[in-house]
């Protein structure tokens, strides 16, 4: 990681350091090394196909350990032929022997200096898994000892001056939409990796001032809540929810940024989900306006919400979820579209 220098993106710096900690936490057992399979293994390929010999398999030669002798050295062809008679010819054995030599065997387990890197089975398991399992594995190593909160959680707790029940926050915003673009956008807000002018100015020759007002430093909380150019839009959203659904929301910074208002606890689940989706689309719309360098307007937000909710409606086969989409669309179509 040192070769990237001190100007590495903080997010990737955190990922790489957690990955290093994960590797150091692994305990390499002899069984992990010697039990690497010979057959149908991605490490041992002959002629672009995984190695497989039924005769050798039936003779009991199934792992790397089985072609090492008692001195911890690879068998010669003569030793191999005495141990597994008639299983392989000399050419195939030498090919197999060369492939096995390329797999690293740590010296403390009797092996010689490796040519290729040894990869712990637990590491292979998460590298072949999906992103969620890989991310969870890194987090478990980084925070399992003290159960301490994530750096982003500490920062938001400080900025918003409150103790936040993060498990509930994650659950709510991941459930309110099946649009991966919206979910990933909210992930970037929660983990504080959403690019703003303040962040970009550290690496690029750009101003750190707000794209909309041009007076304050552009942080996530300023862009989404504090800027006066977005304040009018959020007031219109609050008025629409009050007029259409008879629900009074405060929509303070915590509720907008994290996407959940305590008043929604008293609402039916479908209503709360529809409101959360509206707030999420509102934040995404604000950021898209920033990218296009346009001022956010309430009328345009309603058009975006209509398009996105109708798109989810078309591809949603769950009856209850479709009813939530209908509620979303009706809230947009029936409201007074004035800013």
Write a brief caption for the model.
The protein has 339 residues and is mainly α.
Properties at a glance:
mainly alpha, single chain, 2 domains, two-stranded antiparallel ribbon, about 350 residues
Describe the protein's architecture and organization:
- This protein is mainly α and 339 residues long.
- The protein is 55% helix and 1% strand.
- Helix 12 packs across helix 13.
- The chain folds into 2 domains: 25-117, no CATH class; 152-333, no CATH class.
Compile the SSE list and pairings.
Elements: H1 10-25, H2 30-34, E1 45-46, E2 49-50, H3 54-58, H4 77-83, H5 90-101, H6 121-127, H7 131-143, H8 151-160, H9 166-175, H10 180-190, H11 197-200, H12 220-226, H13 228-245, H14 253-258, H15 269-292, H16 298-315, H17 319-333
Antiparallel strand pairs: 1-2
Helix pairs in contact: 1-7, 12-13, 13-15, 15-16, 15-17, 16-17
């Amino acid at each position: 990681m040192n070769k990237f220098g001190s100007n590495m993106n903080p997010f990737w710096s955190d990922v790489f350091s957690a990955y290093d900690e994960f590797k150091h936490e692994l305990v390499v057992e002899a069984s992990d090394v010697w039990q690497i399979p010979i057959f149908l293994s991605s490490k041992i390929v002959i002629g672009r196909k995984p190695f497989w010999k039924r005769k050798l398999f039936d003779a009991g030669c199934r792992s790397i350990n089985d072609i090492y002798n008692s001195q911890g050295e690879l068998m010669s062809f003569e030793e191999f032929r005495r141990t597994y008679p008639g299983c392989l010819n000399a050419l195939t054995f030498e090919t197999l022997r060369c492939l096995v030599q390329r797999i690293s065997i740590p010296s403390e387990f009797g092996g010689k200096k490796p040519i290729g890197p040894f990869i712990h089975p637990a590491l292979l398991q998460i590298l072949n898994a999906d992103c969620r399992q890989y991310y969870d594995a890194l987090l478990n190593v980084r925070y399992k000892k003290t159960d301490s909160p994530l750096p982003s959680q500490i920062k938001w707790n400080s900025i918003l001056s409150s103790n936040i029940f993060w498990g509930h926050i994650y659950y709510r915003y991941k459930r309110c939409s099946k649009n991966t673009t919206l979910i990933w956008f909210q992930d970037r807000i929660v983990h504080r990796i959403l690019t703003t002018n303040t962040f970009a100015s550290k690496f690029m020759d750009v101003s750190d001032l707000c794209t909309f007002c041009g007076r304050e430093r552009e942080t996530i909380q300023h862009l989404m809540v504090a800027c006066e150019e977005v304040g009018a839009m959020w007031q219109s959203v609050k008025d629409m929810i009050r007029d259409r659904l008879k629900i009074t929301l405060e929509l303070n910074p915590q509720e907008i940024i994290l996407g959940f208002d305590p008043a929604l606890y008293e609402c039916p689940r479908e209503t709360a989900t529809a409101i959360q989706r509206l707030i999420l689309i509102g934040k995404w719309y604000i950021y898209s306006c920033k990218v296009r360098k346009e001022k956010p307007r309430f009328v345009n937000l309603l058009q975006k919400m209509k398009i996105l909710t109708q798109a989810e409606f078309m591809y949603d086969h769950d009856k209850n979820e479709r009813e939530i989409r209908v509620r979303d669309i009706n809230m947009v179509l029936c409201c007074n579209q004035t800013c």
